[in-house]
């Protein structure tokens, strides 16, 4: 169990936020501030091997869920807490809900289903990140140039470059534990299973232009593990629903938590 880095703002009903793969808690800060202003105690978390949280050779969902449990204990979070996770963070949140159901009041999962995900679409990103030679890299532009040879999307590169930081010796590095994530990428795509379903309320939010939640997931995969769940589709949004349609995601979460 690792002691996770987190940022807390606001007072009221606790809402814990878990980011996705290659992300950090900063990805959710605009919405976190809005939910805090709306009356919630918002705790944004860097998952293991990401952001400012510790690195570990293990990157599994049971380990991530145990880390989050440690944070719940550290902060005294009770069973009224809502846990929200996006993508990889959504699978970690599902694992937590299934393993520690008594610690949660509600679950929110953003654009991911329990089924296994094919992670080969991450190959170009891994190739790009691993291609950056930090003995030669003198800043953000040099890193972007190296990434661009593998990743054409400017938006994806800008997202990844949020992981770039300057070390104490003035050299640059990635905040993510790239060797471990590269080695264990297939495990990040594994199916989330459970012997007992999570019976409390759950909200799944998916982007209308994303295929991370499909019709089969809505009919069978999600209800099998989360029978008291609903799926809300945000039209004209892809996988990064919260950054593409923040007002819609803010409203859906606010309505669900307030129910």
Note the main attributes of this structure.
single chain; 259 residues; alpha/beta; Rossmann fold; 2 domains; 7-stranded mixed β-sheet; 11 helices; 9 strands; 38% helix; globular; AB_hydrolase_1; hydrolase
Summarize the structure in words.
The chain folds into two domains: 6-116 and 190-258, Rossmann fold, CATH 3.40.50.1820; 120-184, no CATH class. It has eleven helices and nine strands. It has helices at residues 29-37, 61-75, 88-99, 123-131, 140-148, 154-161, 178-183, 185-188, 215-225, 241-244, 246-257, and strands at residues 6-9, 13-18, 40-45, 82-86, 106-110, 164-166, 172-174, 202-207, 229-234. It has a seven-stranded mixed sheet with strand order 1-3-2-4-5-8-9, with helices on both faces. It has a two-stranded antiparallel sheet with strand order 6-7. α9 links the parallel β8 and β9 (229-234). α2 (61-75) crosses α3 (88-99) and α5 (140-148) crosses α6 (154-161). The two termini are 33 Å apart. The model has no long low-confidence stretch (mean pLDDT 95).
Structure summarized in a few sentences:
The protein is about 40% helix and about 15% strand. It is α/β, with parallel strands linked by helices.
Write the layout of secondary structure elements.
Elements: E1 6-9, E2 13-18, H1 29-37, E3 40-45, H2 61-75, E4 82-86, H3 88-99, E5 106-110, H4 123-131, H5 140-148, H6 154-161, E6 164-166, E7 172-174, H7 178-183, H8 185-188, E8 202-207, H9 215-225, E9 229-234, H10 241-244, H11 246-257
Helix pairs in contact: 2-3, 5-6
GO molecular function, one term: hydrolase activity
Protein name: Alpha/beta fold hydrolase
Organism: Hymenobacter lapidiphilus
């Amino acid at each position: 169990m690792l002691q996770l880095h987190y940022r807390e703002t606001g007072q009221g009903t606790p809402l814990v936020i878990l980011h996705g793969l290659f992300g950090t808690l900063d990805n959710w800060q605009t919405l976190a501030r809005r939910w805090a202003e709306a009356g919630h105690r918002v705790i944004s978390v860097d998952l293991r091997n990401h952001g400012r949280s510790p690195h570990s050779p293990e990157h599994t969902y049971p380990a991530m869920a145990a880390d989050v449990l440690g944070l719940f204990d550290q902060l005294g979070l009770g069973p009224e807490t809502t846990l929200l996770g996006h993508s990889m963070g959504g699978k970690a949140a599902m694992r937590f809900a299934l393993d520690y159901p008594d610690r949660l009041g509600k679950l929110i999962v953003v654009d991911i289903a329990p089924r296994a995900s094919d992670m080969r679409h991450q190959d170009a990103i891994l190739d790009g990140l691993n291609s950056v030679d930090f003995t030669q890299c003198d800043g953000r532009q040099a890193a972007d140039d190296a990434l661009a040879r593998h990743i054409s999307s400017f938006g994806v590169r800008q997202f990844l470059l949020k992981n770039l930081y300057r070390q104490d010796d003035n050299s640059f590095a990635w905040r993510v534990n790239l060797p471990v994530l590269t080695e264990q990428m297939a495990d990040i795509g594994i199916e989330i299973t459970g012997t007992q379903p999570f019976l409390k309320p759950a909200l799944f939010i998916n982007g209308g232009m994303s295929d991370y939640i499909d019709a089969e997931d809505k009919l069978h995969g999600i209800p099998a593990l989360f029978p008291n769940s609903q799926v809300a589709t945000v039209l004209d949004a892809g996988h990064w629903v919260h950054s593409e349609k923040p007002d819609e995601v803010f409203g859906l979460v606010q309505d669900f938590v307030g129910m």
